[in-house]
Amino acid sequence: MRSETTKKLLDLNREFYQRCADSFSKSRYRVQPGVRRLLPELSKSGSILDVGCGNGNLIKALNKAGYSGSYHGIDFSPALLDYSPTAEQAKFSVVDLSSPTWDQPFEAHSFDAITCFAVLHHLPGKSLQAQVFRQFSQLLKPSAKLILSVWQPLNSERLSKRVLPWQTIGLDPSDLDSPCDLLLDWHAESAQSASPQTPVYRYVHQYTTIELEALAGSAGLCKVAEWLDDGRQGNLALYQIWQLPAEPSKENQIETLMPGSASITSTPCRRHD
């Protein structure tokens, strides 16, 4: 993906989360079902880096689950962070994953867990995606885990109808890397004087399991678990757990499904001209 296209897509999402912070935060007042499944395990972690923490709903849920470790939430939207809670063991910072040095304020191999829920699909381009996975790997302690989710909007008939042609924002489909690079609209009223009819757009990449395996595997991570969850049909988000080995290993990856979760099936991507 050309650097100009990458910048345009990043700016598009940055504008969305600033402009629609209020309405978006109201739609995220509690964690998703897939995240709730993880709370018993996460609440035992000593230190958590919550990447794309938004309004901080994860730390609220963790505290209710008895969490007593240290938590650092980061997000590129100051407007969303304004809705984050005050908690004794929690710290919040404005951090932009598109910056090649976003990880520098943190010590290497210092986190017991990194959570990254509904974030990675907003990062355009394979180069940026690979960079962020490498940085995650450098921040995890040996044997620590990266726990992520990415949207699967084409699994939803309702969201599929909200996919728009790229010409809507002046791009040609050939400017994108993949038919799985999608332009979605947002119907809720934004926080800063925009009416419900005002067009607001977001860039989303619908990952395949194979794509995530390539990115995480290249960063030295081993897959522990994978499942689909969230949404009315329980298949709106793909969840994965990755682990940094205590030492380099050539053993086969372990792949499991969470109890009660959906099997891994995704709707194929096609060009939206």
Uncertain spans: 189-194, 250-255
CATH architecture: 3-Layer(aba) Sandwich
**What is the rounded Rg?**
18 Å
State the order of secondary-structure elements, H for helix, E for strand: HHHEHEHEEHEHEEEHEE
Major sheet: order of its strands? 3-2-1-4-5-10-9
Question: CA-to-CA gap between the ends?
Answer: 17 Å
Quick one: overall form? globular
Q: What share of residues are in beta strands?
A: 15-25%
Number of domains: 1
Percent helix: 25-40%
Question: Which CATH class is shown?
Answer: Alpha Beta
Query: Would you tell me the structural class of the helices and strands?
Result: alpha/beta
The largest pleated sheet is described as: 7 strands, mixed
> What name does the CATH topology carry?
Rossmann fold
Mean pLDDT: 87
**Number of distinct beta strands:** 10
Give the name of the CATH superfamily. Answer: Vaccinia Virus protein VP39
What is the count of DSSP helices, taking H or I runs of 4+ residues?
8
Give structural notes.
The chain is α/β, with parallel strands linked by helices. It has one domain: 3-Layer(aba) Sandwich (Rossmann fold), CATH 3.40.50. Helices cover 27% and strands 23% of the residues. The protein contains eight helices and ten strands. The protein has helices at residues 3-19, 21-26, 33-42, 57-64, 78-81, 126-139, 157-160, 209-218, and strands spanning 47-51, 70-75, 90-94, 111-117, 140-151, 163-164, 181-185, 201-205, 222-229, 237-243. The strands form two sheets. A seven-stranded mixed beta sheet has the order 3-2-1-4-5-10-9, sandwiched between helices. Strands 6-7-8 form a three-stranded antiparallel beta sheet. The model is unreliable at 189-194 and 250-255 (pLDDT under 50).
